[in-house]
# Entry
Amino acid sequence: MAQPARGSPHIRRILVIRLSALGDFIMALPAMAAIRRHHADADITLLTTKPLLELGKKSGWFNCVEIDPRAPWRDIGAWFRLRRWLRAGQFDRVYDLQSQDRTAIYFCLFWPGKRPEWSGIAGGASHPHTDPERRSMHAFDIHAAQLRVGGIPDVPLPDLTWLDEDTKKYGLPSRIALLVPGSAPHRPAKRWPTSAYGALARMLIDHGIMPVVIGTAEERHLAEAIRAVCPRTRDLTGETSLFAIAGLARRAAFAIGSDTGPMHLIAMVGCPVISLFSAESNPVRSAPRGRVTVLHQPDLVDLSVDAVVEALVEAGVLPA
# Structure
């Protein structure tokens, strides 16, 4: 068996930064796994946000996972506490997978002391990712290009067997399909109409497949609207952890949903996915990766159920 690559021997302590949101975090998993594989013997800390703490811990890729409270800009005390923590970490290298203005400031917080090697976009970084096409690249490709600059040549899809949960407690039949109708509350234009999901759900029932709606408790009204059209739809909104969603995805015939975080998770564990995009977001930059079919319609109201069914047939997850 090939041995994992070893990073530079002087890099003993590493910080990886990847904050929210869920979809962005999921898209960074290949980069995180690649960092651990390359620096197999290093002490690696992940700095993330509270909702993603358990994902970081259970991955097994980090010696320590810390929460960044993302202090408001005017909370000077919080910024000084962050500065003390960063400097006390004695990191030899930082992989900034967030690479936004906030985390570029984190690089500045090391001044006037010794700065660690830095992979990211911060001015003065030792391993800067300066590709002018960065803003038009997919997150996977951004991370892969950034890590190449830092000496990590390959970023394959990682082993995610740890991302799973027993789903017997839900009492579902053997054939299910996941419906993910939600999106960020302030981005309702990213959603396919619930009436369309309801019509699709009725068709799935006719094929012997139980439609299962997942999402947050706040998205329960979407499930209720779908069930008004297809009462046999199962509503699991507000009942699934991220690990349960992965477990359901591993057992589902397919999933269909908006441009939202759970769809990235579902695709990453290998479930066939129909990903719906409106003019609100760009699939070139943010489509899930895996067995994914993208349907892009400027206004999803105009996306017909027939077009979705056709995509499911072409993907081989429904019979012709």
